[in-house]
UniProtKB/TrEMBL annotation:
This is Hypoxanthine phosphoribosyltransferase. Its EC number is 2.4.2.8. Pfam families: Pribosyltran. It comes from the Bacteria.
């Protein structure tokens, strides 16, 4: 385990098992459709790669970069689009793939953008949910794991751009950012 990690919450194997379940569920619920799966960069890059391998129906993928945390463990509250989608979403069934829902500000902003662009439907698959962090009322349609109220890193999630490459998710030692 990395020296800056206080506790591993979910191992690589537990994460992969859960993603397999999420992929199966999405594949059956979207059967007969051709959804556009949107990866919210950077945090969701690892989840996106593993999830899409477990979806067995035809899909398309696109990427959007959004940021609000910067070098902090608290959301700035200002959600910025750093890179927009390449394709229009009008009339499309859209599935947003997120690593974590914490305050909910990133997703509420993104859902609003996609609805204003006239997506046919918008749903959210989030690998991690931290309900204690919520500032807006928002619930993902598909959730992997519910997390305790702690700042976590790994499996795509960073602190000041570090730790994304850890294959598990764990609580970051508070002395690292205190
Ligand atoms: O529910 P919220 O409080 O909005 O937090 C969730 C968002 O915050 C993180 O992104 P971040 O802004 O850190 O950018 P990153 O993905 O590039 O790390 C994370 O990847 C989610 O997108
Ligand atoms: O707990 C977290 N860790 C890393 N990035 C995050 N973005 C929102 N919450 C978190
Ligand atoms: Mg981040």
């Amino acid at each position: 385990m990395h020296n800056d990690i206080q506790e591993i919450l979910y191992t690589e194997e537990q994460i992969q098992d859960k993603i397999r379940e999420l992929g199966e569920k999405i594949s059956s619920e979207y059967a007969g459709r051709n959804p556009l799966v949107i990866c919210v960069l950077k945090g969701a890059y690892m989840f996106m790669a593993d999830l899409t391998k477990r979806i067995t129906i035809p899909i398309e993928v696109d990427f959007m970069a959004i940021s609000s945390y910067g070098q902090s463990t608290k959301s700035s509250g200002v959600v910025k689009i750093l890179k927009d989608l390449d394709v229009p979403v009008e009339g499309r069934d859209v599935i947003i793939a997120e690593d974590i829902v914490d305050s909910g500000l990133t997703l509420s902003y993104l859902i609003d953008v996609l609805e204003r662009r006239n997506a046919k439907s918008v749903s959210v698959v989030a690998l991690f949910d931290k309900p204690a962090g919520r500032k807006v009322d928002l619930q993902a349609d598909y959730i992997g794991f519910t997390l305790p109220d702690a700042f976590v890193v790994g499996y795509g999630l960073d602190y000041a751009e570090k730790y994304r490459n850890l294959p598990y998710i764990g609580i970051l030692k508070p002395e690292v950012y205190a």
